[in-house]
Amino acid sequence: MGTAGHIDHGKSALVRALTGTDPDRLEEEKRRGITIDIGFANLDLSAESGEKLRLGFVDVPGHERFVRNMLAGIGGIDLVLLVIAADESVKPQTREHFDICRLLSVQRGITVLTKADLVDAETLEVVRMEVAEYLRGSFLDASAAPIVAVSAKTGAGLDELRRELARLAAEAPAKDSAAVFRLPIDRVFSMKGFGTVVTGTLIAGSVKKDEELEVHPSGKRLRVRGVQVHGAAAEKAVAGQRTALNLVGAEVADLARGVMLTPAGMFRPTQRVSVKLNLLPSARVLKDGVRVHLHVFTSETVAEVRLLGAKQLRPGESGLARLKLDDAVMVLPGDRFIVRQFSPVITIGGGVVLDALEPGRRIRAEDRIAFVRALESANAAGVLSARVARRGVDGMSFADAVAETGWLRSRVEAVASELANSGTVARFGEVLVAGDVVATLRAQMKATLEAFHKANPLVAGISREELREKVGVGPEVYRGVEELLVRDKVLQVAGELVHAAGRGVVLRDEEAESKKQIETAFAQAGLKVPLLKDVLASLPIDKVRAQKIVTLLLRDRVLVRVGDDLVFHRDALEGLRKLMVAQKATTPKMNVVAFKDLLGVTRKYAIPLLEWLDSQRVTRRVGDERVIL
Ligand SMILES: Nc1nc2c(ncn2[C@@H]2O[C@H](COP(=O)(O)OP(=O)(O)OP(=O)(O)O)[C@@H](O)[C@H]2O)c(=O)[nH]1
Ligand SMILES: [Mg+2]
Q: In the prediction, which pLDDT does 506 show?
């Protein structure tokens, strides 16, 4: 429960009167009689049902110069006590604090008219009416929320206030302790014998001793040595509780107000945040590109506002914007924030985070606007499918989904399987890919494979890696689409090769068979080779492919072209060479006729063969004769 209200209206005195604890803990606060920084106190109450309730108070300063401290305290609250002094009524920081509560979407609270002892009954009624008028239509509208008059001095009205507090606290919905743990830090100090201690209002999840945490934005890792809740040692802290953690692995200097603790290795801080921004009616026109102070939970930085699809926002209007932050913060969709004018510093608006983690791939401006618009109105399934679609062919891993949404993995799993059932997304191992992207990839992979077969009729198939690179996807997405195509009998995989289904085995056999047939035909023919065109005609495959096989055999020097249209097997030519070398001793010279007779071939073969022997420097032509070298 947070307090809110103008300076000196009695917020701290009221907290002390209710709890017995003075929330002003600083010496300077006590001396000056004002609150400077946020203070804390607890109140135990019993609900009407008998249920035990413990309220943690965050008391905030009313001074206009300390609104940033107020903002550090108010970010985690569920309920607000709007404190208005009966002798002063609504004042500037009453308005500013209440605006902040509305911008942060605080849903419940009680309005307290303090210092009732300082005014007469008639004045009290007038102020009550004024305040009711001011609150009309808000979440504290007098028809829905009580206005209680009290005096911290005399104690008048405090019992009624306690009853209202118990009722309100019992009604308030619990924060989601099943969400991922996040603790925005509001205080850091060192305690003798304990070391480093941090405190904060636990906004989501739970935390236990010995857990490993990460500090954002620094990324530093640390471990929980001990947990305290509302000032007492505890097994664990759950969402909604004032929490203190004793930490191992971090010095006070590593931490400060504004850092966020989360489980280690799960989230990333960001400097680009897409939001829905609401401008207060009291603000000036907000121009595209303006710089503002940005407050989210306990963090504070400067941001440049880039309006999405608009040149300006008029007072009271809301619109989509992308904030460029000077310093990285860890935020998630759904987080509320406040913006204050750069100078003079006054609260001008606030809103809700829609997207905080942008993937590396470039995105066109209109696609970004469409994406953020889709997020604004979508349910969980719509959010996840938009996020998966944004990742295109890269797909989105479950870890990315958790980091982008802040959902527990189990929730991502549940929503993903709902989307998978309807065909909106496909799940490939740890990666989710949009259904229409998968359809495109299937077509692309099939076309790529067909083109490959056409260009390489003699090759059994394309390597998986080459196909993956040609289609331009990562290994997991590739395997997933490949599996779908195998299942649908579009392609087949043999080892690391992929080929079109139905093509591979049969055709490959035919080709291998033909190749063997050609080779055997020439090997058996010796030097009395058949005409190439006759060999090709005898094969069971078409001419083009047969010609390619011959080309391959020539390239591999299994067959050797001699003259213009004769082809011999390399073994036959090797045999000829040896024969000629052996002839040298008995017949060092011979003419064409002698050569013909020696080999038993016609002149049509003899001339090209002799020329080949010359070219191989086995013989040399001297007049009409050949000399064996
Ligand atoms: N008579 C009377 N005086 C009160 C009452 N409540 C608070 N005061 C006095 O009003 C002065 C301001 O009270 P605080 O509780 O410090 O006011 P605050 O709203 O916490 O002020 P900031 O934190 O500085 O914004 C103190 O002198 C209190 O004693 C009350 O109910 N009756
Ligand atoms: Mg105070």
A: 46
